[in-house]
């Protein structure tokens, strides 16, 4: 496992001008990302998980990163530059990856751990194609790079923020599908709430539910409605497109003014826009308390740059955390007191004074 030390980026702005470890040693003999004969030096495609490139979360972040890479090198959308292939169902993973290979893309990313098996199989069948898997690890293949994130660290900060903000002393977590990745979100958030509650001498309850899908907004809305009904005033979702339903339920409740304001904590990218609403008396407001940030797009951009320069990190496992800027938390609408607590916790995690659990079983009450 290699810890990625190339992220110094601001995760809130993915179009950032990154200088990402990809300098020199490649085939480029021009400065516009193309060779002298006008052909693209490299081509990259992402194969999405369900939810699509407009899920306002994980897949969208990856696509924004790839678009930034294309713009950086003056490449066009398509088989000679960069593109995406959308998966509407898990049954499409294999076909979509095969399509990417058949279309001649030199680097093919699987966006999400659910594509790991399909990427692994394709890598064996196509040794001359470069593959990347995001949020999972594929070992022992020189043509596959794995990129994972310390989601538990950013989620711990979200837990700190929630504990400082809640008025009902009940908060919620809604996950998409159960597995190692969402375990990190749940465990980090839960531990952050527990540790902070102790410091504040509060008794805070954490409701936890799973939608069994990353693409079911209706289920997300129903789970959120139940949690808010039970007294939660803040819900952290790690559920991809399912989270759109969580935001919709919070918006409905806040716009009707039928109860005190409820909040949502966004995931993977700054979901501030999803929290905009008008109060019952017509005033502009926002209920996205904060969002955990995950540099999916920046990782895609970084790896694509390395591949372009003939430095594809095949066989490596790149890990991005708070220390190298791979994950973070937005300022959002936190109180000054909550923000100070978040900043302090961040420093302690980076310094190794706080070790954040990666699985729910490791959470300490």
From TrEMBL:
InterPro entries in the cross-refs: BMP_lipoprotein, Peripla_BP_I, PnrA-like
Domain of life, source organism: Bacteria
Recorded topology in the membrane: Lipid-anchor
User: What residue range is the signal peptide?
Assistant: 1-21
Q: Where located?
A: Cell membrane
GO cellular component terms attached to this protein's record: plasma membrane
Q: Name one Pfam family in it.
A: Bmp
Domain (ABC transporter substrate-binding protein PnrA-like) spans: 44-358
Q: Which UniProt keywords apply?
A: Cell membrane, Lipoprotein, Membrane, Signal
**Protein family per UniProt:** Belongs to the BMP lipoprotein family.
Name the chain's protein.
Answer: BMP family ABC transporter substrate-binding protein
Q: Which organism is it from?
A: Enterococcus ureasiticus
């Amino acid at each position: 496992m290699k810890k990625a030390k190339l992220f110094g980026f601001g995760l809130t702005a993915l179009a950032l001008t990154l200088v990402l470890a990809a300098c020199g040693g490649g085939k480029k003999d021009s400065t516009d990302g193309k060779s002298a004969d006008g052909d693209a030096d490299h081509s990259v495609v992402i194969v999405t998980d369900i939810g699509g490139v407009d899920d306002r979360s994980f897949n969208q972040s990856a696509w924004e990163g790839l678009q930034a890479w294309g713009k950086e090198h003056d490449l066009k959308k398509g088989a000679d530059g960069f593109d995406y292939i959308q998966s509407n169902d898990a049954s499409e993973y294999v076909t979509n990856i095969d399509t990417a290979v058949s279309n001649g893309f030199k680097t093919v990313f699987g966006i999400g751990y659910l594509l790991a098996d399909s990427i692994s199989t394709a890598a064996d069948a196509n040794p001359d194609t470069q593959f990347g898997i995001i949020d999972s690890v594929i070992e022992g293949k020189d043509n596959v790079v794995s990129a994972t994130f310390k989601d538990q660290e950013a989620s711990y900060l979200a837990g700190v923020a929630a504990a400082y903000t809640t008025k009902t002393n009940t908060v919620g977590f809604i996950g998409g599908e159960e597995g190692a990745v969402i375990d990190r979100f749940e465990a980090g958030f839960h531990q952050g709430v527990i540790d902070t509650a102790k410091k504040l001498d509060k008794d805070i309850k954490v409701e936890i539910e799973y939608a069994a899908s990353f693409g079911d907004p209706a289920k997300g809305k129903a789970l959120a409605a139940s949690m808010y009904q039970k007294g939660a005033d803040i819900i952290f979702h790690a559920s991809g497109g399912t989270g759109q339903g969580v935001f919709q339920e919070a918006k409905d409740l806040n716009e009707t003014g039928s109860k005190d304001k409820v909040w949502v904590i966004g995931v993977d990218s700054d979901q501030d826009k999803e929290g905009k609403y008008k109060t019952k008396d017509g005033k502009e407001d926002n209920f996205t308390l904060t969002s955990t940030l995950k540099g999916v797009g920046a990782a895609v951009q970084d790896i694509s740059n390395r591949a372009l320069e003939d430095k594809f990190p095949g066989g490596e496992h790149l890990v991005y955390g708070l220390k190298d800027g791979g994950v973070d938390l937005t300022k959002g609408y936190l109180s000054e007191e909550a923000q100070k607590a978040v900043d302090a916790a961040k420093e302690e995690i980076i310094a190794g004074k706080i070790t954040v659990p990666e699985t729910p079983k490791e959470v300490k009450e």
